[in-house]
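Weekly structure sync, notes
Attendees: PL (lead), two postdocs, one rotation student
Agenda item 3: pending single-chain targets
PL asked that the sequence for the first pending target be pasted directly into the notes so everyone works from the same version. It is reproduced below exactly as submitted, 322 residues in total.
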Amino acid sequence: MSRKKKIIISVILVMTATVTGFAAWILDGVKAPEVAKEVVVTTKRTGSVVYDGEEITSQNLGRREGIFTILVAGLDKVSQSTDTIMLATFDTNAKKISVLSIPRDTITRVKRSNKKINSAYAAHSGDIFALYDEVESVTGIRPDKYALVRVEGFVKLIDALGGVAVDVPVDMHYSDPEQNLTIDIDKGVQVLDGYDSMGFMRYRKNYALGDIGRIQVQHTFIKALADKLLCAETIPKIPVIMEIVLENVETDLTLGNGIWLGKEFVSMDFESDIRTDTLPGYGEYYKGLSYYFVNEEETLELINEHYSPFEKRIESLNLFKK
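Predicted structure, written out during the meeting:
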């Protein structure tokens, strides 16, 4: 055998071993997210959030297998507020995803002048666990994992997908020079690019229900985006999408966790397997600010039926009391 052939064969063998080893490493890491087996519901986990009033009694609720909860929040780069907050429960046994939107103005029982939940992250200098604490206080569920999405990353993702088709329910026209934000979208069915999709998700004027109306529109977009992500034309764009996600999403999910969840995700029927809800409650003014107050009875019924990963029922929430 000539020296040249030996070199070529050696290179091929090294490349094959490298690729095989890399594939084995990836596959070895493809697994479900780790979650706490012993779940104790309490009001203070990190010490970052200071609550008003008495503490809720801790209770060990146990844990059902195959159910994962993920906090998804949209981060505004100017204010550092999280105006979009969603708690997603992924039931891999039933192959269902339930997505609960938490209104940005939801009042929480904390010792700060602005008690809105969208201020939790910024008020604690970018501490995601402070947001965990406040989400837990109004839902009874402390998320297993989180994904913090930067607005610019969302825009890039939609552009990479070639836009998303939605039915815009109202004319959306709004300008805020301080945020460098201009929303100029006409009513009707159309394909929105990244910037307009961001405006579509953030717009909340002209809705009879204010922020609740905005959340209802967001749910429509989420389902349209899910359909877009799973269509055949998206497959060649996966490397670009992954690059955008890695650069613009802060998460404690590993790549292997993402692949494992994605594998479960693609087997779902989006007409019947995705549920969307808004945290039950009502709007009211308190000390000059508009807040969203949680209805405890309705929330517990909804959470225990569709969102809880626990074996036992959640019996109470750590809600703000006037």
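Discussion points:
- Residues 45 and 101 are 23 Å apart (CA to CA).
- The mean pLDDT is 81.
Action: rotation student to compare against the earlier draft before next sync.
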